[in-house]
From TrEMBL:
SMART domains assigned to the protein according to its UniProt record, in alphabetical order: CBS
Keyword Transmembrane: yes
Signal peptide: none
CBS domain boundaries: 233-290, 321-377
Keywords on record: CBS domain, Membrane, Transmembrane, Transmembrane helix
Keyword Magnesium: no
Pfam family, one: TM_HPP
Protein name: Hypoxic response protein 1
Amino acid sequence: MKYLSWFGPVQSTVAWPERLRSCVGAFIGILAVYLAGKAIGHMTGMHVWILAPLGATGFLIFVVPSSALAQPWAALGGHVVSALIGIACVRLIPVPELLLPTAVSLSILAMFLLRCLHPPAAATALFVAISGIQAFEYALFPVACGVLVLIATAVIYGKFTRQVYPHRALSRLANGEAAPSAESSSLVDVDRVLANYGGIVDVNRQDLANLVDQIETIAYKNKLKQASCESIMSPSMHCVEANFSLESAWKMLRDKHIKAMPVVDKQDRVVGIITLGDFVLHAAVDFHLSFGQRLRGVLRFSNWKKSAKKVVHSNTVGEIMSSNVRVISADSNLADLITLFELEGHHHIPVINADEKLVGIVTQSDFVKAMLKILSIQSATEV
């Protein structure tokens, strides 16, 4: 079995919709080249009006349209320059043993210099040399015309199948974040790696940077999934019941230097949360009083509400707490917190156990500290 590894890595599996899209595209593309070439051939009286290597070009354009080797300039420039070099070699080199390898090698060199590497184009140079074609017009028709028809077909077909061609680097990553800019560290790092590698990588540098960023994001999320909420939470040392007095709750928040406390029932199940913001919100209802007067009014067990000139007295936590509170399980991973903190805008998340009883609270600060710790460990490992 070890000898099978000499044949290279196993290719990745492609989904059937993509297989069908590629095959149908190649069918339409080659059919368009055939019909256009036949029509032009009849008008010009030329008998050779289709180029065999265009089959390989069709493969690249429709199967791997994101490849740098499949882009319009690579296809058109590669075929045309290879055809011209092949014709020149036929005219100048009478020895077949030198003619064929010279035509192919010079065409590859020219494609390197013109930055239009396209593997099927080397076959064009070889075909021209073998056929003994000496007319430079051959580079225009059927070579250039055939390639242009194939490219045009790919562009139109791509619009209908949502497979954009020519390929452009994605402007956004899969997770919705902006793709790296030209000056980003990702592109700089990719350029350094490519410079050290020295070989040909058949991936656009922007796409390569995007892939690196996505891999890093996935790796980072996997790190987050390895840590539980229980490992970073603060134990539930400070919590109150709904009938707890506002004045006492305020003193606890102030004296313990905390910004939020879970509100629980007799069975330690979370029924709400009270924060500094709740005190500020209820102190700000009556706009005819100063903020200090309003806050003192709340702490004197009076929550002033401007409603038909009535005064509603509130003296317990349950009357001003936020009952719409999100909780998270102690064995949940840190990746689950991203949605709660970033997307839903929460700042304090009560943590519960399997019995749905309060065991702690996780804050944004706890989450940030955990992320920084993971990043520092990851950086140390990479070094």
